């Protein structure tokens, strides 16, 4: 990359910026305000991550096999139609999905998880499907010509070579998921949204930030976690990070 | 041995049925390389893929080593045949070693044995196992990848290999090398190979037999020399090219067109001996050899020394050129043209003088088949080395212009 500004300069800008931000927050009494809510933050963050884990986990458990299923030659014709449907589904705002979910399932954790599951499902299915589809035809021909059964081809050739793309889908899905969980508060799902929305409603910046900052940190951490798992799971030969 | 009997493939398409392969029958004998050759869309690849049932035939029978391939389940069948494709198709998620071990693992070979075999095969395709076993395909050059591709196809030691333009994606320089190495390997392995190509030069070089296809029909199936010397119709004649006789040069080894037992002298010999020997053989020139290692060092022309005195060494001139006995005639002719001469001294790997080859001997050998079309096909000397092809020519060495 021909970046004109050296990395160290950016690092300094970042550090100085963070320091300035901290100084400002300190003078406004915000840091004390946030720390005062520490117990709430921990409790709600845990609830937040539970929602992410359950809805995201279910989305992976359903999305990956569904994507694989759609990529099977027998399903090809149907798969395209279905993917179009899923793509349209992605355009529906998550807030609307939450509202619809509430209409059918009432309020509480279950409708929240359901809505989050729907929102995370699409990127996972799409990436699994496309990842497998984009495995070069030559690899398939070689595998078949060497006498692999379709199942052996899936396990030994198609999935390992699609894994990076599949993980990219999971990353996107979980990032969306963590960022969407605050909305779950609106239908009684709990999570850090409780601090954010209450803070907004009461015009209490400290309370709002006590929800918003941990949400942001959790999103970054989740992304990092998935990236790390991907880095160590994807075979070295097809892993762009393992050179 | 691969036998095709009336094999036909009809593809159904929206615009009607298309006959891709039309009643094709031929046989690839045990241990030979058969090149399926023809323009694109001629049915050669379809024919090949019907052998390992990647494409199911519409009609006819295919036998491999006498067994009907329809009696096997396609997956089992394919594991008994090596398969190499143009795009190589190494699995990027696996190391070179794992790639080679794919089929052995599929058929349940113990891991330790498969590993040993992988290292052995890598050595066979001229890649150092110590360096390459643990590498990933993306860390290899195209030529190295294709070598691994060949090693992988040989892993389970299948009697039959199916190759779809295996060297087509490699740059010309590497292609020559890999082709040569492959031929050397095949000389030991003696696999029965069906090999698709669209390149007549590759076909002539690699093939024991060439099957030329056009629009799903087999136009000619013969040894390369026969295809070049006696194309059965105008299509084949045009396909093999206007320089087809030149292509035949490749098929003959210098040693087989060479005139063995040519006379020579040593530098210490008196010039009178050289003159006497030239008269005895009716030659107009004679080669001077180094006595210690028998390498040709120079040349004496009769016209220039008939009245001379002294030793042969004093009158020796520069030798116009030499060629290895194992080189093909194309090399010899090229050397003749380079040196502006009509004959060359032939040497073995130690540089020892073995005889000489003349332009006339070459044209005579190539012309044989046209004079006696039923018997005169030159043998494919790469496989039948040492066979006498040509009676030693009597008479003077032509050429050698003063």
From TrEMBL, chain B:
<comment type="similarity">
    <text>Belongs to the ABC transporter superfamily.</text>
</comment>
<keyword id="KW-0067">ATP-binding</keyword>
<dbReference type="GO" id="GO:0031460">
    <property type="term" value="P:glycine betaine transport"/>
</dbReference>
<dbReference type="Pfam" id="PF00005">
    <property type="entry name" value="ABC_tran"/>
</dbReference>
<dbReference type="InterPro" id="IPR046342">
    <property type="entry name" value="CBS_dom_sf"/>
</dbReference>
<dbReference type="InterPro" id="IPR017871">
    <property type="entry name" value="ABC_transporter-like_CS"/>
</dbReference>
<keyword id="KW-0472">Membrane</keyword>
<feature type="domain" description="CBS">
    <location>
        <begin position="258"/>
        <end position="317"/>
    </location>
</feature>
<protein>
    <recommendedName>
        <fullName>Quaternary amine transport ATP-binding protein</fullName>
        <ecNumber>7.6.2.9</ecNumber>
    </recommendedName>
</protein>
<keyword id="KW-0677">Repeat</keyword>
<dbReference type="InterPro" id="IPR003439">
    <property type="entry name" value="ABC_transporter-like_ATP-bd"/>
</dbReference>
<comment type="subunit">
    <text>The complex is probably composed of two ATP-binding proteins, two transmembrane proteins and a solute-binding protein.</text>
</comment>
<dbReference type="InterPro" id="IPR027417">
    <property type="entry name" value="P-loop_NTPase"/>
</dbReference>
<dbReference type="GO" id="GO:0005524">
    <property type="term" value="F:ATP binding"/>
</dbReference>
<feature type="compositionally biased region" description="Basic and acidic residues">
    <location>
        <begin position="373"/>
        <end position="388"/>
    </location>
</feature>
<keyword id="KW-1003">Cell membrane</keyword>
<dbReference type="GO" id="GO:0016887">
    <property type="term" value="F:ATP hydrolysis activity"/>
</dbReference>
<dbReference type="GO" id="GO:0015418">
    <property type="term" value="F:ABC-type quaternary ammonium compound transporting activity"/>
</dbReference>
<keyword id="KW-0997">Cell inner membrane</keyword>
<dbReference type="Pfam" id="PF00571">
    <property type="entry name" value="CBS"/>
</dbReference>
<dbReference type="InterPro" id="IPR003593">
    <property type="entry name" value="AAA+_ATPase"/>
</dbReference>
<dbReference type="InterPro" id="IPR000644">
    <property type="entry name" value="CBS_dom"/>
</dbReference>
<keyword id="KW-0813">Transport</keyword>
<keyword id="KW-0547">Nucleotide-binding</keyword>
<feature type="domain" description="ABC transporter">
    <location>
        <begin position="2"/>
        <end position="240"/>
    </location>
</feature>
<feature type="region of interest" description="Disordered">
    <location>
        <begin position="373"/>
        <end position="402"/>
    </location>
</feature>
<dbReference type="GO" id="GO:0006865">
    <property type="term" value="P:amino acid transport"/>
</dbReference>
<dbReference type="InterPro" id="IPR005892">
    <property type="entry name" value="Gly-betaine_transp_ATP-bd"/>
</dbReference>
<dbReference type="GO" id="GO:0005886">
    <property type="term" value="C:plasma membrane"/>
</dbReference>
<keyword id="KW-0129">CBS domain</keyword>
């Amino acid at each position: 990359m021909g970046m004109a500004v050296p990395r160290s300069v950016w690092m300094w800008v970042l550090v100085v910026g963070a320091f300035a931000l901290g100084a400002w927050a300190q003078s406004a009494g915000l840091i004390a305000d946030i720390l005062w809510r520490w117990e709430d933050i921990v409790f709600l963050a845990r609830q937040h991550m539970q929602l992410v884990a359950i809805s995201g986990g279910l989305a992976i458990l359903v999305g990956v096999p569904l994507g694989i299923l759609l990529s099977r030659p027998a399903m090809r014709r149907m798969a395209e139609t279905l993917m179009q449907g899923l793509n349209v589904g992605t355009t529906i705002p998550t807030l609307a999905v939450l509202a619809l979910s509430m209409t059918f399932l009432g309020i509480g954790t279950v409708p929240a998880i359901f809505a989050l599951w729907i929102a995370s499902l699409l990127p996972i299915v799409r990436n699994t499907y496309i990842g497998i589809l984009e495995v070069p035809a030559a690899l398939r021909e070689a595998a078949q010509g060497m006498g692999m059964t379709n199942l052996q081809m899936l396990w030994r050739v198609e999935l390992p070579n699609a894994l990076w793309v599949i993980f990219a889908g999971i990353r996107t899905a979980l990032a969306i998921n963590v960022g969407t969980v605050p909305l779950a508060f609106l239908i009684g799902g709990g999570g850090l949204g409780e601090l954010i929305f209450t803070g907004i409603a009461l015009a209490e910046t400290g309370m709002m930030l006590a929800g918003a900052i941990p949400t942001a940190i959790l999103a970054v951490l989740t992304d990092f976690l998935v990236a790390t798992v991907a880095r160590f799971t994807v075979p070295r030969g097809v892993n762009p990070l393992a050179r | 041995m691969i036998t095709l009997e009336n094999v036909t493939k009809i593809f159904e398409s929206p615009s009607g049925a298309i006959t891709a392969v039309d009643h094709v029958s031929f046989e690839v004998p045990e241990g030979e390389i058969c090149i399926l050759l023809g323009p694109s869309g001629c049915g050669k690849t379809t024919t090949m893929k019907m052998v390992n049932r990647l494409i199911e035939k519409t009609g006819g029978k295919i036998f491999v080593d006498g067994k009907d391939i329809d009696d096997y389940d396609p997956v089992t069948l394919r594991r008994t045949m090596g398969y190499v494709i143009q795009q190589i198709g190494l699995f990027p998620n696996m190391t070179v070693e794992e790639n080679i071990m794919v089929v052995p693992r599929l058929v349940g070979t113990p891991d330790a044995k498969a590993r040993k075999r992988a290292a052995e095969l890598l050595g066979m395709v001229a890649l150092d196992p110590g360096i390459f076993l643990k590498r990933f395909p993306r860390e290899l050059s195209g030529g190295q990848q294709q070598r691994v591709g060949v090693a992988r196809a040989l892993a389970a030691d299948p009697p039959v290999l199916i190759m779809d333009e295996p060297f087509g994606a490699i740059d010309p320089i590497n292609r020559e090398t890999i082709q040569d190495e492959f031929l050397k390997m095949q000389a030991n392995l003696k696999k029965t190979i069906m090999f698709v190509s669209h390149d007549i030069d590759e076909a002539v070089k690699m093939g024991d037999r060439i099957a030329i296809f056009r629009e799903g029909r087999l136009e000619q199936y013969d040894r390369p020399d026969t295809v070049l010397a006696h194309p059965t119709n105008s299509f084949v004649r045009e396909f093999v090219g206007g320089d087809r006789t030149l292509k035949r040069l490749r098929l003959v080894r210098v040693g087989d067109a060479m005139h063995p037992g040519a006379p020579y002298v040593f530098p210490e010999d008196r010039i009178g001996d050289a003159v006497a020997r030239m008269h005895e053989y009716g030659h107009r020139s004679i080669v001077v050899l180094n006595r210690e290692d028998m390498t040709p060092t120079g040349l004496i022309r009769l016209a220039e020394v008939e009245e001379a005195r002294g030793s042969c060494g004093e009158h020796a001139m520069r030798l116009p050129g030499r060629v290895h006995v194992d080189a093909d005639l194309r090399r010899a002719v090229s050397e003749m043209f380079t040196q502006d001469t009509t004959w060359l001294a032939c040497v073995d790997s130690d540089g020892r003088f073995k005889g000489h080859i003349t332009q006339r001997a070459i044209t005579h050998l190539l012309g044989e088949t046209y004079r006696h079309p039923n018997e005169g096909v030159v043998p494919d000397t790469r496989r039948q080395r040492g066979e006498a092809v040509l009676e030693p020519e009597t008479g003077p060495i032509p050429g050698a212009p003063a």
